[in-house]
Specification:
heterodimer; A: 526 residues; alpha+beta; D-Maltodextrin-Binding Protein, domain 2; Dipeptide-binding Protein, domain 1; Dipeptide-binding Protein, domain 3; four-stranded antiparallel β-sheet; 31% helix; B: 307 residues; mainly alpha; MetI-like fold; 76% helix
Chain lengths: 526, 307
């Protein structure tokens, strides 16, 4: 018997044993893709976050509504200048192997995150920490200069480059999870293998069959283990949403983390109350190349934006009721309040079209000189449906659109290199703060695919980020947002929604703007 | 025979090398890189990732590194999976794919040959028409259509079988994937068998057997089946390589952890290492299976053996 076959049989036997032992309250979650790793510094997707957030815990955790709550830290203080955070760790926190979690584990983790050799995709999310970016760029090689210091085993001090209002929220992200220094140093890259990995979250991973599932069980060493109602979870890999829905209907899954939009009406009738569609902190938009005539003309951009009938896209074209987007920052974003809106938001659609025609005529386009443009999107049924619909909405203006689709990698390569006139893009919030969206339109930022540039806007964003008073900061940001909207920097189309299907036997599932639902807050009715 | 087999295997090494080399360079011509996506990474991160995977080195140097690792038996890292190398992923997925593939292969032969023989024996009679129609369904309906129908009927409506997943690897979990995989091949095998069997049954030595008073069942089993299997055997090589390399559709729909989805997914993700790894694996498997077919041919046909 080969080594592989033995491992295969062992894994099958272990799976069976686990299935029997954990049948009581095991949550079966359809999780979409295969995780790239169990190492929280090697992740980049929401499906990976679901697992990582169950098995690790940072200084700050999230409650079911996604409010930051004390995690491994029991309390923290912030200096008057808003730059220095001092965290007191909880008493008795341990890794799953019984070793204590110390401030040094956090220092080790942040230093490793910024180590260029580690090549962590998401290291930039913590660039607000002093010297983090310089270390990641290789400009500073002494990692001890990173603004993360262990004062003693129980006290951690983090110094920032500048006051950052969303920093506590950013600490809930998996890039801020601690790592078991004693295991990583002893085992190297193998620290993350099943059987070796130790974690500090409510659950610990005990099985991973790539392409099939990751199984977790309760972590007995976790300080809140007594409060856990679910014994463990199985995160299933399955990208085919139709197949996932069938397995849910057969009772094989308790939660679906996505579903085919064309099944929504059927689900409302046949699975009442089980399909959860909720506002999600994300924006679906079209970029428009501001450096390329005629799109460098603000009137052309505004005409195209006004002629999009956003009201029909969510309910009729997608069928899941996505809300029309007239702002750049989605409503409900933290530290912001109500966002700024385009001035023509409340005009009836017929008047918007009349106004759009007028703008195009002023810009020199009309029946004798139609505007011709390419609209690029990445291959996907929904993107196609929206592109076809919007091209049809622009037709009465005398705009001829050629639709061009490409696979995701190619599409984003074209967006990045500016080979686009109008192109589909989307942004899902990394952290719950307006800066995350407003940053997309700053001059020179890579995600600014439309190359829109406005020095006044850039100045306001800089000013807002230097402001520690949240109310004042929001005011400055709103000015910037209004500037971008008045100039039609890009064309917001709709705000994303999260789409989950939750079995009636699951309790404690709370819809929230980042679609994060930790197993620790859930329970299961028998 | 052993000498012949060794010679055949050795002759594939240059072919393999040319394929890997071509694949290596063609992959890099494709627009978009492994780290392009919905969420563009800052230049500093891109630079670190490129350095981490040697992508910042000249292409020819990357190629030399890859070939050097390959000669040591290392298929290199996968960009999509940090915790498993390409080789590890293939070795993990292989038992699942082989289990389903082998079972589907045997089922396809069993059903295909049986139905084909019956069709030939009852040529142009009612059983032939009924079986032909059933088999035609298996051939013409694509598996991405059959799989959801089976899931709906046997998984959801009747509740007899699990809708998907490997579960504990027990038979009930594997029935639907095996049937879906086997069906089109069973159809093709039955049509080849039927045609070949009709041809053989009209030959002189069969007429002689019948004249000697041997019954139809014995005539088929003892005299007709072996020569009639020649065209079937030549189809089995490609069929086996198709089944044993896994099916993207079947593995995706049933959520199985096999290697069928690796190639397509890796190509779309620009996961160069995984694409090359699967190409090498497929080629080695195809060469090996073709060799087995040739050996089976030699066993079935003395003329080939003596050539």
């Amino acid at each position: 018997m080969t080594h592989t076959t033995k491992k295969f049989l062992a894994s099958a036997m272990l799976g069976t044993l686990l299935a029997f032992s954990a049948q009581a309250a095991t949550l079966n979650i359809h999780n979409g893709g295969d995780p790239a790793s169990l190492d929280p510094q090697k992740l980049s997707g929401d499906w990976e976050n679901r697992i990582a957030g169950d098995i690790f815990e940072g200084l700050v955790a999230e409650d079911a509504k996604l409010n930051p709550i004390p995690g491994q830290a029991q309390s923290w203080t912030v200096s008057d200048d808003g730059k220095v955070y001092t965290f007191k760790l909880r008493d008795g926190i341990k890794w799953s192997d019984g070793q204590p979690v110390t401030a040094e584990d956090f220092v080790f983790a942040f230093q490793r995150l910024m180590d260029p050799k580690n090549a962590a995709d998401y290291a930039y999310l913590q660039f607000t920490i002093k010297n983090a970016e310089k270390i990641n760029k290789g400009e500073i090689t002494d990692f001890n200069q990173l603004g993360v210091k262990a004062i003693d085993d129980k006290t951690l001090e983090i110094t920032l480059e500048a006051p950052t209002p969303y920093f506590i929220g950013a600490l809930t992200h998996y890039t801020a999870y601690p790592l078991p220094k004693h295991v990583v140093e002893a085992k190297g890259a193998d620290w993350v293998k099943i059987g070796t990995i130790v974690t500090n979250g409510p659950y610990k991973p005990v099985e991973w069959v790539p392409g099939s599932h990751v199984t977790t069980v309760k972590n007995d060493q976790y300080y809140g283990v007594k409060d856990l109602k679910i014994d463990g979870a199985k995160f299933f890999v399955l990208e085919d949403q139709e197949a996932a829905l069938k397995r849910y209907r057969a009772g094989e899954f308790d939660i679906l983390t996505d579903f085919p939009t064309d099944q929504y009406e059927w689900m409302k009738k046949n699975l009442p109350g089980q399909a959860h569609v909720a506002p999600f902190s994300g924006l679906y938009y079209y970029v428009i190349n501001s450096t390329k005539p005629p799109f460098s003309d603000k009137r052309v951009r505004q005409a195209l934006s006004m002629a999009i009938n956003r009201e029909v896209i969510g309910p009729q074209i997608l069928g899941t009721g996505e809300l029309p987007a007239y702002s750049w920052v989605p409503p409900g974003t933290a530290n912001y309040g109500e966002p700024a809106y385009v001035s023509w938001k409340d005009l009836p659609y017929s008047e918007k079209v009349v106004e759009a025609k007028k703008l195009l005529t002023e810009a020199g386009f009309g029946p004798d000189r139609p505007l011709t443009a390419q609209l690029k999107y990445n291959t996907n049924d929904n993107h196609k449906r929206i592109a076809v619909a919007i091209a049809a909405m622009w037709k009465p203006l005398g705009v001829n659109i050629e639709l061009v689709n490409a696979e995701t990698k190619v599409h984003y390569d074209q967006l990045k290199s500016g080979e686009v006139e109008i192109g589909r893009a989307g942004w899902l919030a990394d952290y719950n703060d307006p800066d995350n969206f407003l940053n997309l339109l700053v001059t020179g930022v890579q995600m600014n695919y439309g190359r829109w540039s406005n020095p006044e806007y850039d100045k306001l964003i800089k000013e807002g980020n230097a402001q520690t008073d949240l109310a004042k900061r929001a005011e400055i940001f709103k000015k910037a947002e209004q500037l971008a909207l008045d100039d039609s920097a890009a064309l917001p189309i709709y705000y994303y929604v999260s789409k989950n299907v939750v079995s009636p036997k699951i309790e404690g599932f709370v819809d929230n703007v980042q679609d994060i639902h930790r197993t620790r807050w859930l329970s299961m009715k028998e | 025979m052993i000498k012949y087999a060794l010679r055949r295997l050795l002759s594939t090494i240059p072919v393999l090398w040319i394929a890997v080399t071509a694949c290596f360079f063609v992959l890099r011509l494709a627009p978009g890189g492994p780290f392009d996506g919905e969420r563009p990474l800052p230049p500093v991160i891109m630079k670190n990732l490129a350095a981490h995977y040697n992508l910042d080195k000249p292409l020819i140097q990357q190629y030399m590194i890859y070939v050097g690792d390959l000669l040591k038996g290392d298929l290199g890292p996968s960009f999509a999976s940090e915790d498993f190398t390409v080789g590890q992923q293939i070795m993990i997925g292989l038992p699942y794919t082989f289990t389903i593939g082998t079972a589907a292969f045997l089922l396809a032969i069993l059903v295909g040959v049986t139905v084909g023989c019956l069709g030939a024996l009852y040529q142009n009679k009612t059983p032939d028409y009924i079986l032909g129609a059933l088999i035609l369904i298996g051939v013409v309906l694509p598996n991405f259509l059959i799989a959801p129908i089976l899931q709906l009927v046997f998984g959801i409506r009747l509740g007899w079988l699990p809708v998907g997943g490997w579960g504990d690897g027990s038979f009930k979990f594997l029935v639907m994937p095996i049937v879906v995989l086997a069906l089109p091949h069973a159809g093709r095998i039955s049509r080849i068998t039927r045609g070949s069997m009709i041809e053989v049954m009209n030959q002189n030595f069969i007429r002689t057997a019948k004249a000697k008073g041997i019954g139809p069942r014995l005539t088929v089993m003892r005299h007709a089946l072996k020569p009639a299997m020649m065209p079937v055997v030549s189809y089995l090589g490609p069929a086996a390589s198709y089944l044993l390399t896994g099916s993207l559709v079947v593995e995706s729909v049933f959520g199985l952890p096999g290697i069928g989805r690796y190639f397509i997914t890796a190509a779309l993700n620009r996961d160069y290492g995984m694409v090359l790894g699967t190409v090498i694996f497929y080629m080695v498997l195809i060469v090996f299976l073709n060799l087995l077919v040739d050996i089976a041919y030699a066993w079935l046909d003395p003329k080939v053996r003596n050539r």
